[in-house]
């Protein structure tokens, strides 16, 4: 029996449609619709880090520069399957408003 929490490692993709510096939009998830610039591409994990998206709090130890320590916010990785180039995202068709009925009752 496998230990609890064991996950299969995803095979890295051979080709990535997103590169560092690209403007991208989040297609699905809690951050859906937000846009940002790609800071890093994590090829082995099939994930990308996007500026201002998926902010996580990281505990920092006290140092000479920051004697109190505390928490700092930084960007966390997002699955590359949830990301689309901004130009393609703006081009894709959207569902129009529900078809309105005419006076006769048939759909327009």
TrEMBL record:
Matching Pfam families: KOW, ribosomal_L24
Q: Which InterPro entries match?
A: KOW, Rib_uL2_dom2, Ribosomal_uL24, Ribosomal_uL24_C, Ribosomal_uL24_CS, Ribosomal_uL24_KOW, Translation_prot_SH3-like_sf
Residue ranges constituting the KOW domain according to the UniProt record = 17-44
Q: Which GO terms describe its biological process?
A: translation
Q: Which UniProt keywords apply?
A: Ribonucleoprotein, Ribosomal protein, RNA-binding, rRNA-binding
Its biological purpose: One of two assembly initiator proteins, it binds directly to the 5'-end of the 23S rRNA, where it nucleates assembly of the 50S subunit.
User: Family per UniProt?
Assistant: Belongs to the universal ribosomal protein uL24 family.
Complex formation: Part of the 50S ribosomal subunit.
This chain's protein is named Large ribosomal subunit protein uL24
Question: Source species, please?
Answer: Methylacidimicrobium cyclopophantes
């Amino acid at each position: 029996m496998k230990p609890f929490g064991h996950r299969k490692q995803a095979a890295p993709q051979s080709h990535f449609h997103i590169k560092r510096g690209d403007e991208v939009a989040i297609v699905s998830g809690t951050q859906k619709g937000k846009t940002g610039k790609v800071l890093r591409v994590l090829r082995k994990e099939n994930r990308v880090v996007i500026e201002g998206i998926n902010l996580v709090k990281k505990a920092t130890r006290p140092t000479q520069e920051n004697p109190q320590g505390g928490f700092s916010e930084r960007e966390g990785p997002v699955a590359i399957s949830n990301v689309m180039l901004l130009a393609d995202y703006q081009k894709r068709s959207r569902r129009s408003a529900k078809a309105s009925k005419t006076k006769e009752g048939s759909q327009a």
